Amino acid sequence: MRPNFRGKTRIVLAAIAATLALLTGATDLLVEHRTEGRIVTRAAHRLRPDGSVRADLTTPLAGLRTLGGEVGDVEVSAKGVHRQHAVLDVTVHLKDVTTNGDSAGGTATATVGYDQVSRRLGAMGNGLTADGQDGDLILSGNVGRLGLPVAVRATLSTTAHAFTITPTTVSVLGRSVAVDDLAELPATSGLRDELRPRTVALTSLPHGVALTSAHAADDGLVLGFSIAAGPTPGAGGTAV
């Protein structure tokens, strides 16, 4: 009986292909892990957060791409970043990042807890606590000598370097009144002055970063940013 060399050859080739695929996958995961580690180290050095930093390469075969100078799409998150006397949880998404520190741009979000929002509202939030509802900011609590329950709804708007909180309605004992109408009520004219729009400037944003949105989410005030293509903010010439 003649040996089936063709069948044996197919088996050997299949085994070689499987081994190469395994080695390639292992190499890719190893390089990807090392690249993520370098990104985490650099992000932690620049942001100096209180909490953890995480980096994820989201492009297929990201590790092997790194060997050719391309990292691909990157997501970096950091908890407890201190900026402008606030503590933020930050997430950054960058597209087509290279090992030289360039990218095709991306987006970022920064979340501020409502406990901090309440403390920083000044006269507008005196005695009130902040929360979110349908994207609007809600300030609620008991005010005045009688301790009446009050809820103030405020909308949020943005420019490239600032966001504005604009109170629109006040609800007292189940009755809702527009803030603009408070001036017609002698007993509440002082409250209207306290509820004027307040603009918060975001100073020292990195070059190419602009504020694009603000909304009140379940876990805090969320600011959205765009990141222009070019050197990644603060990359200093290298990304990994």
Polypeptide structure, described:
The strands form three sheets. The chain has a six-stranded antiparallel sheet with strand order 1-2-3-5-13-12. It is of the alpha+beta class and 240 residues long. The longest helix has 43 residues, at 5-47. It has two domains: 9-113 and 219-231; 114-201. The chain is elongated and about 85 Å long. It has helices spanning 5-47, 62-67, 114-120, 189-194; strands spanning 53-57, 70-83, 86-98, 102-103, 106-112, 129-133, 136-143, 148-159, 162-172, 175-178, 198-201, 209-217, 220-227, 230-231.
Which tags fit this structure?
single chain; DUF2993; 14 strands; 4 helices; alpha+beta; six-stranded antiparallel sheet; 26% helix; 2 domains; 240 residues; elongated; DUF2993 domain-containing protein
Question: Secondary structure elements and their pairing?
Answer:
Elements: H1 5-47, E1 53-57, H2 62-67, E2 70-83, E3 86-98, E4 102-103, E5 106-112, H3 114-120, E6 129-133, E7 136-143, E8 148-159, E9 162-172, E10 175-178, H4 189-194, E11 198-201, E12 209-217, E13 220-227, E14 230-231
How many helical elements?
4
Strand content: 35-45%
Low-confidence stretches: 15-31
The percent range for helix content is: 25-40%
Describe the largest sheet.
6 strands, antiparallel
From the alpha carbons, calculate the radius of gyration and give it in angstroms.
27 Å
Distance separating the two termini? 60 Å
Question: Taking all residues together, what is the mean pLDDT?
Answer: 77
Total strand segments: 14
Structural class: alpha+beta
Number of domains: 2
Q: What string, H for helix and E for strand, traces the elements in order?
A: HEHEEEEHEEEEEHEEEE
So what's the overall shape? elongated
Strand order of the largest sheet: 1-2-3-5-13-12
